[in-house]
Amino acid sequence: MALAIFWLAGLSQSAAQSETATPSVSETIQQNPNRTDAIAKSDADATATAIALIEPKEHHLLRRPIQLDEDLVHWPDRTYPYGSTQWGTRPVHLGVEFVNPRDTPVYASESGKVVFAGSDSETVLGPQADYYGNVVVIVHDLLSLDGQPVFTLYGHLERINVSTGQAVEDGALLGAIGSTGVAIGAHLHYEVRVESPFDYRKTRNPELWLQYYVNNGMVAGFIHDEYGEAIAEKRLILRSDALNREAYTYGSELVNRDPVWGENFTVGDLPAGEYEIVVLKESGALAYRENIQVEAYTTTFVDIEISE
After folding, report:
1. What is the spatial distance between Cα 110 and Cα 101, in angstroms, rounded to a whole number?
2. What stretch of H or E contains 216?
3. Which pick of 81, 83, 139, 218 has the fewest CB atoms within 10 Å?
4. Span 280-307, mean pLDDT?
5. What does DSSP say about strands 298-306 and 149-160: parallel, antiparallel, or unpaired?
6. Residues 254/201, Cβ–Cβ less than 8 Å
């Protein structure tokens, strides 16, 4: 048996209509007074033509920390998202990864003040010392929807270009990608924290905070049993005529659900359109199926009850 309720939350029509036209592939990175960043490449899942700044009815206010360049990966790694254990093979993930070559520049997601810049070998920021290696943490000039201060963390850096106490502008150069600390290969580990910059148990899902690509939205949801208890590591598939994306619900009680959304999975960077969401049983058999509509610059929330 499966039940579902879904609803939408997003920006006003006037905000959506203010977006610039989609650039051609030959155009370079642009910035305008409305803070729309133009890009000339897509990944296999999303037509990544720009980032849209929306009204603060949702969290999606933070710039992606990697430049929107056609040769760089500026979307979170799909194989090890927030809340994942990578099919039970790794510790639960409390951030997201941007996998790019060593020395790729890393930029501030929003203006603010650096509250930590350096090695975490003595100041423990994660589950152990020297976990993030060279790391920068910034407190931003904004609050979460429930009124808490917001921090971003940038880990495994090869080098750091800012210092503790320094004020930084939106998009300021913070350092470069490396593999310091506990890291497998060069990548940026990126976190959003609330309340405390030094407590890794205060993380939130960064995909709920990153700005949308132009004409893209996302799906978030809560998959639970008939008693309302979250079901961990439940496999789901979101598909349309253009893409097929697999995801899993959060894999541990260490993972914080957003206090506004209450989600246990997200699927971001989805071109607006109609999708089919499918939830599978452990055997691979069908547990739930429904068609949903993803709107541009909007989070579609799905509440799904699964009885097995």
Report:
1. 23
2. strand 216-224
3. 139
4. 91
5. unpaired
6. yes
